[in-house]
Design a protein that fits this description.
- The chain is an alpha+beta fold.
- The chain has one domain.
- The protein has 4 helices and 15 strands.
- It has helices at about 35-40, 70-80, 205-210, 215-235, and strands at about 5-15, 20-35, 45-50, 55, 90-95, 95-100, 105-110, 120-125, 130-140, 145-150, 165-170, 175-185, 185-200, 250, 250-255.
- A 12-stranded mixed beta sheet has the order 14-9-8-7-5-2-1-13-12-11-10-15.
- A hairpin with a 5-residue loop joins strand 7 (about 105-110) and strand 8 (about 120-125).
Length: about 260
C-alpha cells in the first residue's frame, strides 16, 4: 500500500507499430484519500481542496463529475462489476489542477479492504474530446497486480478502438509504478509506464514540484498535440472518433505477466 502524498517521477510512452515513436517526461501527481482530502491539505498554502490555489484537488474532476464525495461513486462501480469490497480506504492517484487547469489522461482509484489488501482498481481514462471512461478491475490482494481489459474507448486518433490492455501495477509504502501494454491480436503496439516515488505533502515539496515543472497540466495537453503532429508527419493513420461507451468496462485478472516482466 502506497501512502497518500505528493508523487514525483517519470512517464515513458513507446509506440511500436507501424513505426517506433517514443516520448518521456518528468511529472508529479498527488495520491489522495478520497474520504478526507481536506485534511491532507489543511494549513497548506500551495495545495487546496475544492477551491483555487496554485495546486488543487476538486472532487468534481472525477467520478460522476457532480462534486459529490467520490467514495459513493467508487462503491457503485465496484458493486456493478460484482467485485467484493468491505469498505476500506480508497486512494486516488491523479494530476492536481495547476493554476486552475487540469487534464488527466488517466487517474487511478485504489480501493483497499479493511485489512489494507487491495480489493480493486479503477482506471479512469479521459481523452481530449472531453469524454471519460473507466476500466474497473478486481485485484488479487498482492503487491503486484496483473489485469487486462478489452479496449473500447477512443484515446488517440492514431489507434483504432480495438485490442487489449494489460495493466501491471505495483504499490509499496513509498513507490508506485504502472505499466500499460496495448496489444492488437498478439502484437504489442504501445507501451506506457509510470514510475513514482512518494514525498510528504507539505508546502516546501509542493512549491519545489510546481517550479521544477511549471504549468505541468498545460504542458500535458500541449505535449499531446505536439506528439500528434509528429505522428502525422511520420505518416500515422488517422482514425475518426466513434461514440463513447455508456457504461464502465469490467476488467479481469490476468495470469500472464506483461512482456517486460
Amino acid at each position: 500500500m502506497t501512502h497518500p502524498g505528493l508523487m514525483r517521477g517519470r512517464t515513458i510512452h513507446v509506440r511500436f507499430q507501424p513505426f517506433e515513436h517514443r516520448l518521456a517526461y518528468d511529472l508529479y501527481q498527488v495520491l489522495i484519500n478520497v474520504d478526507d482530502p481536506g485534511s491532507q491539505v489543511r494549513g497548506l498554502k500551495w495545495m487546496a481542496h475544492n477551491r483555487f490555489a496554485p495546486l488543487a484537488f476538486y472532487d468534481k474532476d472525477h467520478g460522476d463529475r457532480t462534486g459529490a464525495p467520490l467514495r459513493g461513486w467508487v462503491e457503485a462501480q465496484l458493486a456493478a462489476a460484482k467485485i467484493a469490497y468491505d469498505g476500506g480506504p480508497i486512494h486516488l492517484l491523479t494530476f492536481p489542477r495547476v493554476l486552475g487547469f487540469v487534464f488527466n489522461p488517466i487517474s487511478v482509484f485504489l480501493a483497499y479492504h479493511r485489512d489494507l489488501s487491495l480489493a480493486a482498481v479503477i482506471y479512469e481514462v479521459n481523452n481530449t474530446f472531453g469524454e471519460t471512461h473507466s476500466y474497473v478491475a478486481p485485484a488479487s490482494g498482492q503487491m503486484v497486480q496483473h489485469q487486462e481489459a478489452d479496449k473500447i474507448f477512443h484515446v488517440s486518433p492514431f489507434f483504432d478502438v480495438s485490442g487489449r490492455y494489460a495493466f501491471t501495477l505495483r504499490t509499496s509504502g513509498e513507490t508506485l509504478s504502472l505499466t500499460i501494454d496495448k496489444f492488437s491480436d498478439a502484437v504489442r503496439d504501445h507501451l506506457a509506464t509510470l514510475k513514482l516515488r512518494r514525498e510528504a505533502m507539505n508546502d516546501k515539496n509542493l512549491a519545489r514540484a510546481f517550479f521544477a515543472i511549471p504549468f505541468l497540466t498545460f504542458k500535458v495537453v500541449l505535449g499531446i498535440h505536439w506528439e500528434a503532429l509528429k505522428l502525422l508527419v511520420k505518416g500515422a493513420r488517422y482514425h475518426h472518433k466513434p461514440k463513447p461507451p455508456i457504461a464502465a468496462s469490467v476488467a479481469r485478472l490476468s495470469r500472464i505477466p506483461s512482456p517486460h516482466e
